[in-house]
Amino acid sequence: MRWSWKLGTFAGIGVYMHATFTLLIVWVVLREWGRSHDLSATLRSVAFILLLFACVVLHEFGHALTARRFGILTRDITLLPIGGVARLERMPDDPMQEFWVAIAGPAVNMVIAALLFLTLGAAGSLPTLEQLGTPQAPLLGQLMIVNVSLFLFNLLPAFPMDGGRVLRALLATRMEYTRATQVAASIGQALAFGLGFLGFFYNHMLMFIAIFVWIGAEQEASMVQMRSALGGIPVRSAMVTDFHTLAPRDTLDRAVELLLAGSQKDFPVMENGDVRGILTHAKLMSVLAGRESARVEDAMETRFQSAEAGDMLDTAFRRLQECECRVIPVLDRGRLTGMLTADNVGEFLMVQAARGRGRGAVRR
Description:
This protein has helices at residues 21-36, 39-69, 95-123, 139-154, 162-172, 177-201, 204-230, 252-261, 281-290, 296-299, 313-322, 342-363; strands spanning 4-10, 13-18, 74-80, 83-88, 267-271, 274-279, 307-308, 327-332, 335-341. With 364 residues, the chain is an alpha/beta fold. It folds into 3 domains: 1-155, no CATH class; 157-230, no CATH class; 235-350, CBS-domain (Roll). A hairpin with a 2-residue loop joins strand 5 (267-271) and strand 6 (274-279). The longest helix has 31 residues, at 39-69.
């Protein structure tokens, strides 16, 4: 993820902190200092936030390490002000594998809460009911309560929370995956409506959560429906076949000429008949800003995904999404034969839908 700083690698997984996370720390410092003008209280608040996000990282490792047991790797884990994101290479195809991957994160929070409870109990420092949620509660006591809250919140049966995926996985053991997603999304949106209703009268924060849940359910349902519509269709049916290529020693001026002459934004870089890299629009712009005399090989991405012309379109489209790239080259027996872009997949679906409506009109 752009604008992220690497904190380290643990269990073979890179952990990053997004630059916006520092804004959260600054906000906590300013708020606490403005409220109390007490250095120790301010440092305590910062320590609490750091401990909280350490728990968030452990939550994401719960997902990542469980996915690894099913042969699914995790690209990285990134800390954001709103939480953490573990980028799995793919979601499990088996519903029960998805169940275990989804529930592993909240389970980690419950284990942390249980360990803190035992530690505080052994030390005789368990907070009273009156202390809970107040500055008088011990730091570890507050952390225990927050982990219980994270466990409960993440298990809400609604996308994009883990509970939505748990629900979908359980439904998918009894019905088709796309139908299970639609049912889980509908339940999530019903929950969002209820949260929004309560939020209107009692707590406006619930209204923001309701909007977040509603949009997450809509996006997940749409994504699964799209993948279902692409099933059984080969990549060659939707790939771009009219495109330009570049050579590593071409100047970036040549790339700019092709960019301005047509609609192509990203270019495969070829050498001796093989794809050596991809010159993306974003990388072209960033290198142009500082090195006008640079060549394509100075700016191209050498790590990229590819697809075979005979691959199924739903699989290739998922790969396109998971690598967060705009385009992937399509090969046929090692020879570059096309390019697959999200825009072209969308156009293909619209054409298929229009043809379907046309055939329906003729039948009537």
